[in-house]
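Readers of this paper often ask what the protein records in our data store actually look like. The remainder of this section carries one protein's record, kept here as part of the documentation.

:::
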Amino acid sequence: MKGARRPELRLPPLEPWTEGELAPDGDYDGLEFREADLAGQDGVGARFMDCALTGCAVDETALGRARFLDSVLTGLRGVGTDLAESTFRDVELADPRLGGTQLHGAVLERVVIRGGKIDYLNLRQARLKDVVFESCVLVEPDFSGAHLERVEFVDCALRKADFGAATLKDVDLRGAAPLEIARGLDRLSGAVISTGQLLDLAPVLAGELGIRVEG
């Protein structure tokens, strides 16, 4: 089992972002977005390099195909943020409060998601490599069709996760408590779980295999 490589971030001195509105295909370098209301804005295809986004509202923000590189995102909050086919590389996401975030087809590499809660996270067909979910709560995350390599769940609640048609390699689920899998138990080859988790999943596994347990 190979462990995930974590990002090593050292942000340069940042300038405050003062434009007020995101722009499609915008180029943002070395900027701090602090308490910005980005709800409903269109930043499709934008590039964020060496940026800090702190306490920003991202309800229904359009950020499809956006790129977040060497950046720190802290305290983001919002529902329905569209990040489909986006790229996150060397990124820390801390204490998010998000719901219905669309990350289908996204690429995440050397990413740490720490703290907070994300409901109904859509990672269908996404590619995750060297990603750590740490001390966070994930409610009904959808990893269906995704490719996960060197992904760790550390002190993380994973509720009703969907791994249908996913491909896993060096995925460490031992730190997930609870570990609840709604679909895709047959796709867990390439993952490691603890003995206690195996016992917890035994009834679901028996059901998947058509085994009756009596007495």
